[in-house]
Amino acid sequence: MLRHRFTAEDFHRMHEAGILPEDARVELVEGEIVAMSPIGKKHAYVLNTLVDLLSPLRGQAVLSIQNPLVLGPVTEVYPDLALLKPPRTRYRDRLPEGEDVLLLVEVADTSLDYDLTVKLPLYAKAGIPEVWVVDLARDRVHVFRRPAGEGYGEREALEGGELEVLGLKVPVKEVLP
């Protein structure tokens, strides 16, 4: 099978030329254009809940919702939510990169396996310090900290208790639908 690998620059040119429509739900993963899962009701609810719960961090972090994140010359993903280093003006002329991320969140309904086996190693490799994967099928939040190579040194699955980021405590039960 013949495959053509794309760079992030190619990916942007395809969007600009209309080859990939502006509303196309695709991302660039290791040079391949990959369709993203559709967003269902639970997914949308959890993402809106996270925005509400994390909004007190405005000023300490930039909330970026389903926006591009560059993880290298051939990878540009669209995580559900990222808390980025402030100020927001630092992203006026460039897209955020892995080193800009304080926390990254993926909401997974049907995409859990993909998020854990494909995207999580990319996040670790990019040095993203903390990732939460909200598992809608099992009502838990997978937490990953201390990136090392293509994995994380610390990982836990929470069904209760609290998540914490930048001193803000977030009850796990409030994140889950």
Task: Give a quick summary of the entry.
It contains 4 helices and 12 strands, in the order αββαβββββαβββββα. With 177 residues, it is of the alpha+beta class. InterPro entries: Nuclease_put_TT1808, Restrct_endonuc-II-like, Uma2.
Features:
177 residues, tt1808, chain A, two-stranded antiparallel sheet, 23% helix, 35% strand, Restrct_endonuc-II-like, Uma2, Uma2 family endonuclease, hydrolase, endonuclease
Written overview of the protein:
This protein is α+β, with helices and mostly antiparallel strands and 177 residues long. It has a single domain, classed as tt1808, chain A (Alpha-Beta Complex). Helix content is 23%, strand content 35%. It has four helices and twelve strands; from the N terminus they run αββαβββββαβββββα. The protein has a six-stranded mixed beta sheet. A hairpin with a 2-residue loop joins strand 4 and strand 5 (75-77). It starts with 7 loop residues before the first helix and ends with a helix. It comes from Thermus thermamylovorans. Pfam families: Uma2 (PF05685). InterPro entries: Nuclease_put_TT1808, Restrct_endonuc-II-like, Uma2.
Q: Estimate the strand proportion.
A: 35-45%
Sheet having the most strands? 6 strands, mixed
Shape: globular
- Poorly predicted residue ranges: none
Percent range of helical residues: 10-25%
Radius of gyration: 16 Å
The number of strands is 12
Beginning-to-end CA distance, first to last residue: 42 Å
CATH class descriptor: Alpha Beta
Secondary-structure class:
alpha+beta
Average pLDDT number:
92
